[in-house]
Amino acid sequence: MRIERLILSNYRQFRELDIHFATKQDHDLHLFVAPTGTAKTNLVNAINWCLYYQEPHLTADSQLLPIINLKAIEEACDDADQEVKVEIWAKAKKDETIAFVRKGIYRVRSKQPVHQKTEFEVRVTDPKGNTKLLIDEDAHSYVERFVPQRIREFFFFDGERLDSYFREATGDKVRSAIFQISQIDLLDTVSEKLDLVLRELLKEAGKESPSIDATRANLEKAENSRKDCLQKIGECEKQIDMASARIKELRERLVGMPDAQTLEKERQDLGAERKRKEEVLKAKEAQKRDLLFEYATIIPLWLAIEKSTQVIAKKRAEGEIPPTVDKSLLEGILNEKVCKICGRSLDSLAVRHVRDVLEQVTLSSEVAQQLLRMEHPLGMFEDKVKDFEKNISRISKDIGDLKADMGRIEESIKKINTALSGHNTEQIREWNEALNQFEGLRADNQTRLGELKEAQRRVDTEIQRHKAELDREFKKVEKVKKLGKEKVFCAKALDIAQKTKEAILQEMKDKIEYETKRLFLELVWKKESFKDVRIDQKYQISLIHWMGWECLGTVSAGERELLALAFTLALHKVSGFDSPIVIDTPVARLAGESRENFGRVLCQVSKDKQCILLFHDDEYSSNIRKYMDSKAASRSLFRLSQDEKEVKMEVLSNA
Amino acid sequence: MKTRINPRILERIRKETEGDKAVGDFLEKLIWVEAERSGQWWWKEPYRKLLKDYAEGGASGAY
Amino acid sequence: MPEAPDRIYIDEDDRKLLEKIDGDPEQLFSHDAGRSRKEQFLCFMAFGFRHGVKRPIEGKKDGLFLVKDLRPEDEALINAVAIYDSGSVDVLANISRVYETAEQYARGGMRLLLDSIESSQTGTFEKKLEKELYEIFSNIVDKQSGGVKLGE
Q1: Angle, CA A85 vertex, CA A80 and CA A88 arms, to 5°
Q2: Top-level CATH class of A210-257+423-476?
Q3: Are residues C98 and C27 in the same domain?
Q4: What is the per-residue pLDDT across A504-522, written as a single tens digit (0 to 9) for each?
Q5: How confident is the model at residue B3 (pLDDT cuts 50, 70, 90)?
Q6: What is A557-589 written as a DSSP string?
Q7: Helices (H), strands (E): how many in chain B?
Q8: How confident is the model at residue A484 (pLDDT cuts 50, 70, 90)?
Q9: Greatest CA span in chain C, whole angstroms?
Q10: Cα gap A608→A615, rounded to integer Å
């Protein structure tokens, strides 16, 4: 199918536009060039609006404007209706003409358009001229046959955004695209219905035989169990894929980043340790000060201490300490000449005797007592002085060790600060936490997946057992022979349908993979950099560097765009859909040789398929023109009208 | 109205049912029936009839 | 025997010096850091004795602490200073003289200590003190040949 004519009426900047897409002998290639402000993207939006009632590529500016042309609004009388219309006239291979027409009616009030209704119809005219009008569900079904909505991004797309779509295209989306393109959904529908028929047959047979019914019920139960298992497996695998993608993304983000979480914890611990040591140091320093103070009171007095110690020792050796005679008592006796012990008066002999004793006693008892009291403390001071060096050294060493430890702690903290500086540690911590979370999620799901697959294996065995049992039961009961024949036939057909589906999907996947690789290597200019393109069983696309690693995440935006384009073209080729391809801004991110390759490849593609390309005037460079100008079936230029309210088209060349 | 069927599907069915033409014909018939219908439709009776016809090996498959 | 004094005195004018010592940033001798007046006094006395500096109280006497706060070890030190100063143990019979000797050495030591603190850069007085004590200690160890051997 190809677009023969595109008619826009009051659609946005296009007041009246009627584009005829004539064919050239070999190439069905149509080029449109548009300077900035001419809203070429709205041509793609117009096609989407007509077919799907959506405008997926509206710019921010366009979103603020009504869909109806501004000039039409200006010229409309108040309360008059204005119409927006887009018609796509297409030709199917069997010479059928199909017109997709969407019309929007707006009532203009005070220069503001108010939507009244939108109508859509499909007119199919056969070669004999008979026209069939389709509306509602039938009309939409026809659109689905032309280009299914689910995969329209592969047919009408913005070249600049193809890369982001492609990146967002998970395996599911790619699989879904292949599914639709290859009409596998038909096989699925047939399989589902055959399965229901089979169940019905078994139920009918069950009415004739209780044992068949019992086995059927068990089989149904097991099959439901299997379905449930498969669903859970699917969910599990999805979770694993999602977690793996997130893990990959987070690891890429964390490359070169410090392990902030660990480092911060370490810094925190070091800080706490430093605080503890500071307190101990403070206490030790206070202890040393006390010790110094104590020694500052004793050591300078050493001479006095030593002297007194010697005197006391001498007095002790001489027997003056402890005092044996109370000197003051004797002095008292002499003064009063009365014995204070017995009370007798002293005669001269006695007085002389006492005087002699007194002369021998040189130390008063009071002084002797004082000396005695001094003896023990002085001995203590001597011991203390003895230990001076030891005590001071020990505490000084403790202080030194603490200061050294604190120095090491400071150094470590400084290193951590250096490692973390310039990084958003909060962000890194969040990423690390998220990474741990997703790794945990993935591990849990992998374990669960193993368990589910084991459960599936068990239930599969059970199903086989029940099926074999059913076969035996069917053979036993005469009444259900005919049903048995149908059952076997139906089961076989179902089996074949499922096998066919898997085989075609695999075949399609392999072919798309092959074509994507072939086209990509044709398009890209650094051919030697890439070894392979792969689509895995989960339909994830990967690009393999010549050295063997997966490099899709690290190639340039231009290269990703080429891969997306190659994949899209591969889908077109393999799908068998001959719908046209419309690309807006196809080569903005490509340069030099890649642009030339693009031109060459699209010319090649246009031999079998209608290609409509909308270039920005900057894109339409010499390396594009070199290949395309001579081969294009038509070339047109969009221009903004003088009052800037309308875009007009000038045909540069036409076949 | 005849509609388009991916020829690969039909080829593959043929290949898988090489030894059993009836099953192949039956499946092909169903595929065509589904392709020409859209949305909800009363499918059970036609399916059962086709099954009965093809299983007994006598049907032309005309439906 | 003259009546024993009930307190130890300093010169009233020396209160200012005491306040300055209390403001010692290293808090080795500061009353605010927990040194009692008695402990301060004994330390001043030790310093004065070490450097042989005695200064009699010239101005009005100002009571610093009560004699009853002196423990036996404190009295031993004061007595030892008096014995050494007078050359005789008999000085112990004159308690007023004993305290007077202590007060004079303390007065001399207080000034010396303050000068030393003020002439030291922040953070160095303690080191200076430690060094001085080590020097005295080394001399003690060197002098000891018989009798009590220190450092063993």
Answers
A1: 170
A2: mainly alpha
A3: yes
A4: 888 888 888 999 999 888 8
A5: low
A6: HHHHHHHHHHHHHHHHHHH-----EEEES-STT
A7: 3, 0
A8: confident
A9: 48
A10: 21
Are A296 and C92 a contacting pair at CB < 8 A? no
Tell the residue number behind the tokens 């995969």, with chain if given. A151
A457 burial type by CB count under 10 A (0-12 exposed, 13-18 middle, 19+ buried):
exposed
Distance from CA of A268 to the nearest CA of C (A): 30
Predicted local distance difference test score (pLDDT) of residue A369:
85
Residue C109: pLDDT band with limits 50, 70, 90: very high
**Which tokens sit at B23?**
């099953």
| Number of domains forming the structure of chain C | 2
Contact A516, A567 (CB under 8 A): yes
C17 and C87 fall within a common domain: yes
Q: Which residues are CB-contacts of B9 (< 8 A; sequence separation ≥ 6)?
A: A182, A183, A184, A186, A187, A500, A504, B31
Identify the residue among A291, A305, A365, A367 best suited for mutation to test binding to C, counting C beta carbons within 10 A and taking the highest: A367
Residue-range definition of the domain harbouring residue C152: 124-152
Contact residues on chain B for A488, CB-CB shorter than 8 A = 55
> How far from the centroid of its chain's Cα atoms is residue B47's Cα?
9
Q: How far apart are CA A338 and CA A351, in angstroms?
A: 9
How crowded is residue A182: how many other Cβ atoms within 10 Å of its Cβ? 26
Question: Tokens in use for A441?
Answer: 């999620």
pTM for this prediction: 0.56
Q: Which among A145, A489, A504 has CB closest to B9?
A: A504
Provide the percentage of residues in chain A whose pLDDT is more than 90. 44
Q: Is the peptide bond before C2 cis (omega within 30 degrees of 0)?
A: no
